[in-house]
Amino acid sequence: MNTPTIAKPSPLNNPARTPITLTIAGSDSGGGAGIQADIKAISATGGYACSVITALTAQNTLGVSGIFPVSPAFVEQQLDAVFSDLEIRAVKIGMLSDAGIIQVVAKKLRQYQPEFIVLDPVMVATSGDLLLEEDAISTLKNELIPLANLITPNLPEAVTLTGSAGRHIDPSVLKCLDQEMLIEQLRAISNNAVLLKGGHWEHDAFSTDYLITESDTVTISAERVVTRNTHGTGCTLSAAIASYLAQGFSLADAVNQGKTYLTEALCHADLLSIGQGHGPVHHFYALHSLRDQG
């Protein structure tokens, strides 16, 4: 498979040209998802990462044992700190734990107006249970989705955003979805673009995502990688896309490059031996390959 293009670093005497991407998300103490995965993906794809933490989690490769939300006031303080000093071109948004935090993030994005916003709507647990209350989902749809250049829902999240499910999403429902209808429903809720991730169509030999714009739907496929190390795939993809947007790639190219990067990170994931459960993808596979060549 092709290695994604990585932008050349900016000259040291011109730091304003450094492609900076902000990740707004929760912290994963196990290091495989959330803020930690975002920072790794942004760094590995040639960007500089800064962060605003919305929640602390106690988790590892076996699961999440606790969540400690950060107050909306301190989220706001973090946002002011990074935006007032750093030239942030792209923002990736992940886990937002409640309506108050969503409102603060939306308010600050309207104030500072970064060029690109990629929203990964972390809304559904692996069990199928919703992670956000109804008021938070409504706030997300009304306040943040209109600001995003791209939203990147997986199938359960897409079903939730379009109002096709209740508090629990049965995996059997996902297998019989009307794909075309879902795409049209997603097109109707977003002013800009949607990347519908097809990873939950596990019976397919290929992992196919759908880039949905106002006038077109483009399929982006890669051969499905069989590995247990899939923790943080959604975070990694959306962060990589935001990183490529910050570097000047078009939306379509950024999505393609992000998909290629994630696929390679999955292909190399079994080179890592992390934890007893679902380990992370290999964010720095390119450095690993260079080390082996040396």
Automatic annotation (TrEMBL):
GO terms for biological process: thiamine biosynthetic process; thiamine diphosphate biosynthetic process. Gene3D superfamilies: 3.40.1190.20. CDD domains: HMPP_kinase (cd01169). Keywords: ATP-binding, Kinase, Nucleotide-binding, Transferase. It comes from the Bacteria. Pathway: Cofactor biosynthesis; thiamine diphosphate biosynthesis. Its EC number is 2.7.1.49. GO terms for cellular component: cytosol. One of its GO terms (molecular function) is phosphomethylpyrimidine kinase activity. Residues 28-282 form the Pyridoxamine kinase/Phosphomethylpyrimidine kinase domain. It holds the Pfam family Phos_pyr_kin. The keyword Transport does not apply. It is an enzyme of class 2 (transferase). PANTHER family: HYDROXYMETHYLPYRIMIDINE_PHOSPHOMETHYLPYRIMIDINE KINASE THI20-RELATED, PHOSPHOMETHYLPYRIMIDINE KINASE. This is hydroxymethylpyrimidine kinase. It comes from Photobacterium halotolerans.
